[in-house]
Amino acid sequence: xxxxxxxxxxxxxxxxxxxxxxxxxxxxxxxxxxxxxxxxxxxxxxxxxxxxxxxxxxxxxxxxxxxxxxxxxxxxxxxxxxxxxxxxxxxxxxxxxxxxxxxxxxxxxxxxxxxxxxxxxxxxxxxxxxxxxxxxxxxxxxxxxxxxxxxxxxxxxxxxxxxxxxxxxxxxxxxxxxxxxxxxxxxxxxxxxxxxxxxxxxxxxxxxxxxxxxxxxxxxxxxxxxxxxxxxxxxxxxxxxxxxxxxxxxxxxxxxxxxxxxxxxxxxxxxxxxxxxxxxxxxxxxxxxxxxxxxxxxxxxxxxxxxxxxxxxxxxxxxxxxxxxxxxxxxxxxxxxxxxxxxxxxxxxxxxxxxxxxxxxxxxxxxxxxxxxxxxxxxxxxxxxxxxxxxxxxxxxxxxxxxxxxxxxxxxxxxxxxxxxxxxxxxxxxxxxxxxxxxxxxxxxxxxxxxxxxxxxxxxxxxxxxxxxxxxxxxxxxxxxxxxxxxxxxxxxxxxxxxxxxxxxxxxxxxxxxxxxxxxxxxxxxxxxxxxxxxxxxxxxxxxxxxxxxxxxxxxxxxxxxxxxxxxxxxxxxxxxxxxxx
Amino acid sequence: xxxxxxxxxxxxxxxxxxxxxxxxxxxxxxxxxxxxxxxxxxxxxxxxxxxxxxxxxxxxxxxxxxxxxxxxxxxxxxxxxxxxxxxxxxxxxxxxxxxxxxxxxxxxxxxxxxxxxxxxxxxxxxxxxxxxxxxxxxxxxxxxxxxxxxxxxxxxxxxxxxxxxxxxxxxxxxxxxxxxxxxxxxxxxxxxxxxx
Lengths: 582, 196
What we know:
The complex is a heterodimer. Helix content of chain A is 35%, strand content 17%. Chain A contains 20 helices and 23 strands. Chain A is globular. By secondary structure, chain B is of the alpha/beta class. Chain B has a single domain (2-194), classed as Pyruvate-ferredoxin oxidoreductase, PFOR, domain III (Pyruvate-ferredoxin Oxidoreductase, domain 3, 3-Layer(aba) Sandwich), CATH 3.40.920. Chain B is 38% helix and 23% strand. Chain B has eight helices and six strands; from the N terminus they run E-H-E-E-E-H-E-H-H-E-H-H-H-H. Chain B has a six-stranded mixed β-sheet. In chain B, helix 1 packs parallel to helix 6 and helix 1 packs across helix 7 (163-172). Chain B is globular. The two termini of chain B are 27 Å apart.
């Protein structure tokens, strides 16, 4: 049965066919759809864990108990889960455990461009790199086999373009699940130094065996014979598919089992060609290894280090390799002078209302990762520093403790509060900080497509769950000043901010209103601007709502197709010119 | 043979829905199909693109075309068509909605929205279909049908896929109850395009 699946859908399919019992993850583009699709299959336990470290730990438990397990996250999520990964490599697994990590070359929706293959080397675990959905399904299933054969976790590394591209995938039926029954063996599962030192040696021995296995693997690696023997390209993942179209004459080696490196395969392939080039996206990991084998090759001298290796970049590399300038087939010049179109808060977004209120105060704002990161853009421009998920409160605390003269306001989302932000709140309270902390609570993990989290009262499997209350957690941490506000009530939020920013002790404001896209309900009736009452003062434009537009010399207009009826602009207009539609 | 289609627009306009219809129609017609779409931050009012490629040969297909080789460019917003014009091959077809979605960067005075769109479109595209599909959709009673009308017009530029497969592809992507209206909108686009 052939199905047109995205890479992420195919990973879910492979997990199901491979007999997965349990799956854990935290949402993150471009990995989110794996669990969202896996949960549709009968009989698989799925969960959104509060963060990636929790997800991997839970998965380790499931696997040690004997079950086949997957864990999903984006590349930066693996930073959070790195601690259990390093030790799990020693302790090992029983049921196959595949850690699906999605890298984001080109930073389509990420703060960094990390190459997860570094983690595979650091943790000394195998990494498989599918190029498309067909391979994503097959490699996931093969990952279970390798994981069980060697008793270690396996990383399935995808990239944005693999996860979000479709191909026709031949699908099969599900294999039986493993029997879950823990077998006691502390020398294996408890890495006290006494036993840990022995496990350490086993890890190294395992790497050698895996390298040999990788070189001879019957299905994971691919070689496309070109029409000649002049150029051999060693590449990986989806880059191989671009190379195949742009270098039809070259031989191409794509090691699907990318680490431990399949040395014998690489040496044999390289020996057959006059010239060898390593064309890989990300860091020169494969290239440096190929060179260490004594193979002369080009690599990052002609291949960009940064950004996504798109077909036009491969075309440029072709020009550099052959010393000529084959111009891009570009009948039309790239347009100039077009207005940029960055992502913005949707019409009706409660985050806009909160950040607009913050524009009235001379404070610094530290934020974290979510839709509300967009608060940095003009005309709001109300985020000054942002590092990582859960970091909004702690950044504020640090600036304050360093003696920053301005008051610092830390902002988190609801999902990121549970992810890793609540320890920051604990830090501020425990260490007698005075930061003003704000949770912009839209009761959803909105940026990645509205996933549930511990505060929503529902699990990914659709079951009701106790909804964790941010204010109760804060109170239990010792926070005394806690205010819950409706961000669309601008007068009230202004008063609350004024009072709390002036406070000489830690303070928490929960700005609470649901994401209208998530609940599929508009906050209120659409608004219209009464042209005869409008003084053209442009104040309503300062909230950056995409529904409000203006033509030179005219009064602003509200696009009825876009307006979500949030009433923020009505509150901003001092002349009463904005009203609910009749 | 490989055919490449690039779809562009603004988050929320239905670019991914339209890409799904093409892919589904091409699959129904027996082609090897691949698609690519950019998710994530782009859905928040940003510029969105998707590509569909289909081929009569089996095997791995790159989901991304090379700049300057795309057979059909379909844009649900008029200046997004200009932004991606250089992706189209010489003689390729551009199917563009007569729709302006004003970016916030224009509203807050950072940038300006071009006022010579028609002239520029005619300048860069040899074969342009410029459709007032929102207006037509509103006449049909639902502005959301505009992308189905545009998809119909684009379908006309891909004769490799027969109309019966377009119908199947469209129906496969619709929620129950929406079929009749969307089929009408699709045919409206498909038929009027042939008159231009």
